[in-house]
Amino acid sequence: MKIGNYNISEKSPVLIIAELSANHNGSLKNALETIKAAKRAGADCIKLQTYTADTITIDSKKDDFKLKQGTIWDNKYFYELYQEAYTPWEWHKQLFETASAEGLICFSSPFDFSAVDLLEELNTPAYKIASFEITDIPLIEYVASKGKPVIISTGIAELEDIELALDACNRIGNHDIALLKCTSSYPAPIEEANLLMIKDMAKRFNVVTGLSDHTMGSTAPIVATILGAKIIEKHFILDRSIGGPDASFSMNELEFTEMVKAIRDAEKAIGKVDYALTEKQKKGREFCRSLYVVENMEEGERITKENVKSIRPGYGLHPKYYNDILGKQIKRSLEKGERFQLSFVKDETQ
User: Fold this and answer.
1) pLDDT beneath 50: ranges in the chain
2) What 3-state DSSP class applies to 77?
3) C-beta separation of 213 from 154 below 8 A
4) Measured between alpha carbons, how far is residue 292 from residues 305, 314, 337, 345, 347 in Å?
5) Cα-based distances in Å from 273 to 230, 269, 270, 277, 282
6) Can you give the C-alpha Rg of the chain in angstroms?
7) Residue spans per domain, the chain
8) For site-directed labelling of 45, which of 100, 139, 229, 251 has its Cα 20 to 30 A away?
9) CA 249, 25, 186 angle in degrees (round to 5)?
10) How does DSSP assign 86-108, residue by residue?
């Protein structure tokens, strides 16, 4: 999978996405500064959300349209929330341009066909299907028809939902798909992260997998990296004091910077399957055990547990020979501290 100039493969570094979401809190200046801060923090991408209140819901005060799912937004109406949270469409061009100037990949989550059309005009390099849109098969088909990589969050998905979404992409002929494990709680409890799904989805569906994370802190992204995630997405904000619908579960610049460093360190720690030692590790073998003469010995004396022992350092004979040499005679006198060698042992068969 290639997004912009970033090739995602089994051996590539994790693609780290800073999610702008509503963290501009209605200010274009905040949005632009957030993009620049994301670059400083080590993000590879900035991701937007492209909708208006009218393209995602309707202005209704019926009970169905009142949030009451135990979220941080409860008692608001959908329309009110999305009016507050949306990123104005007239900003998009400048946000894309600023991201490009900063060396960041920029793409977005569209929430209807008109949002896709806008993003096509901006030559978006990829699309993200948000967790709650995974059941919108017509939208997924329309996104897939653009021939760009499609990243799908699975926060509220059952297995059938994932299969239907993948089938929609494949049916259109778009096989450039990534699935992100996600827990659609804000913030998400760490015990509900269920990160083993990352490995299972990669194997089950043969796609790139990753994590769209709403837990607090860096633990989940680090563990996800170790489990093979190739994409990590985290909500990012200049300063939580700005406020806004997503501020409470978003990382600030310092926290995001620390997370990026931890992910990159985790990648280094994963390493590879290789039983060969580096030169530095070979040097460390000097501290392992080996066989040494620990008492002065006369020619013809027999080897005992008292005069030859397995001790540090590791310059002497390998301890695997210890039981073989016990009770044997030596050919010559030996001094305490001498490295024992097999050549010291008298051949008693002659």
Assistant:
1) none
2) strand
3) no
4) 11, 9, 6, 13, 20
5) 19, 12, 9, 11, 17
6) 30
7) 10-51+86-270, 279-344
8) 139
9) 20
10) ---GGGHHHHHHHHHHHT-EEEE
- Cβ–Cβ < 8 Å for 282, 315: no
Residue position matching structure tokens 């460093």: 261
**Cα–Cα distance for residue pair 213/234, rounded to 1 Å:** 5
Q: Is 327 left (phi over 0), alpha (psi -120 to 50) or beta?
A: left
DSSP reduced 3-state for 277: coil
**What's the pLDDT score for residue 350?**
59
pTM score: 0.88
Q: For tokens 């406020």, what's the residue?
A: 243
Give the C-alpha distances (Å, rounded to integers) separating 306 from 38, 41, 294, 297: 66, 61, 7, 11
CA proximity to 87, closest of 134, 37, 35: 35
Residue 60's identity, in one-letter code, is S
CATH architecture of 10-51+86-270: Alpha-Beta Barrel (3.20)
Structure tokens at 304: 């005992």
CATH class of segment(s) 279-344: alpha beta
Of the chain, the percentage scoring pLDDT greater than 90 comes to 87
Q: Are 196 and 202 in contact (CB under 8 A)?
A: no
